[in-house]
Amino acid sequence: MTLLPQETSGEGVVVFDVPQAWAGRSIRRMRWEFHGGRLTKFDGDAAALALRKQYEMSTGDRDRIASFTIGTNPRATLGFLQNPIVRGAVSVGVGGNQFVGGPNKSAFGFESTVRAATVEADGKPIVRDGKLLVA
Predict the structure, then answer these.
(1) How many domains would you assign to the chain?
(2) Between the N and C ends of the chain, which has fewer C-beta atoms within 10 Å?
(3) Distance between CA 48 and CA 27 in Å, rounded?
(4) What is the pTM of this model?
(5) What integer pLDDT is reported at residue 72 of this predicted model?
(6) Separation between Cα atoms, residue 67 and residue 60, nearest integer Å
(7) CA distance 6 to 78
(8) Spans in the chain with pLDDT lower than 50
(9) Domain encompassing residue 121
(10) Residue 101, CA distances (Å) to 41, 66, 67, 97, 109 in order
(11) Helices (H) and strands (E) in the chain — how many of each?
(12) Rounded distance, CA 75 to CA 86, Å?
């Protein structure tokens, strides 16, 4: 289930723990911090720092939260292309999202995944340890 979050509302820290292929590299550790829907801190391993360099050279809404996906497919397994649909996984993207009807304009876009996330919306848990709490 992919959502286009309100671009000015995302708050919190995302620590991605699922390896993500990018530009011939494997990002194995990456941490993003959001305030007001903007990516304010970006850290990680050497591959993540290379991605950050590309991010820093980009323009537009590169730092805006672009997508939020809660995986619901019980038969899917983690492994790059299907990561966002795996039951219990949560994926977060930043940058351009006009291709899915969103308002963010940027040539930059990247999404990665957390294996068993805990997520709150308006102070209420909607996912805890990878378990969807709302129907």
Answers:
(1) 1
(2) C
(3) 6
(4) 0.91
(5) 92
(6) 16
(7) 27
(8) none
(9) 2-132
(10) 26, 10, 11, 7, 14
(11) 1, 12
(12) 7
